[in-house]
Amino acid sequence: MQYSIGQVAEKLDISTYTLRYYDREGLLPFVDRNQSGRRVFKDADFNYLETISCLKEAGLPVKQIASFIKLCLDGDRTLADRYDFLAEQESDLEAKMATLQHSLDFLRWKKWYYKRALQAGTETVNYTPGTTETDPELKAKFDQLVADGADPQELGRIDQ
User: Fold this and answer.
1) For residues 40 and 34, is the Cβ–Cβ distance under 8 A?
2) 123: left (phi > 0), else alpha (psi -120 to 50), else beta?
3) How many helices (H) and strands (E) are present in the chain, helices listed first?
4) pLDDT at position 159, please?
5) Distance from C-alpha of 76 to C-alpha of 58, rounded to nearest angstrom
6) If DSSP codes are grouped into helix, strand and coil, which group holds residue 40?
7) What is the average pLDDT across 99-109?
8) How far, in Å, CA of 52 to CA of 68, rounded?
9) What is the rounded distance in angstroms from the CA atom of residue 54 to the CA atom of residue 101?
10) Top-confidence residue, 153 or 89
């Protein structure tokens, strides 16, 4: 079956502008053109388009994605290169996810901290007595609540 750029855009929930941009940047060398010069997509093209979308969502620059698509089109002789490329991207993405998870964990801890302060009407409830420093036992208490199964997102909700 053949698809127009509009049909592909609708099917993938991306804009025709994005598809045209991808084409200009060399990400769509597999797409055929009809006699009028319009792009004509085939069912087989959706595998490439899904790969492009995934790599884009993972934060890869367009030039790297174009290089990967070229490797795909070069056939079996590039299988090892493609595998290595994806393994490297997987590792990079896992590292980014770990960093984001750390940030999310910290933000949830701080929400709980401020929830306690709001409930008490003062931030001093979180301080070591006689200081303006956060009581280290407080963070340990939060961590223990989470370790015991409490949802860290729910711990910081004000409407509880």
Assistant:
1) yes
2) alpha
3) 7, 3
4) 73
5) 25
6) strand
7) 95
8) 9
9) 20
10) 89
- The mean per-residue pLDDT over the stretch 4-23 comes to 96
The SS3 of residue 127 is: strand
Q: Can you read off the two tokens belonging to residue 36?
A: 């009028």
Q: Which two tokens stand for residue 42?
A: 């085939």
**Is there a contact between 31 and 39 (Cβ–Cβ < 8 Å)?**
yes
Strand partners, 2: 42
Contact call for residues 72 and 78 (beta carbons, < 8 A): yes
Confidence of residue 160 (pLDDT cuts 50, 70, 90): low
First CA to last CA distance, the chain: 54
d(CA 75, CA 157): 53
| CA 17 and chain centroid, separation | 22
b/e code 108-119 from CB counts within 10 Å (16+ = b): bbebbbeebeee
Dump pLDDT digits (tens) for 57-90: 999 999 999 999 999 999 999 999 999 999 999 9
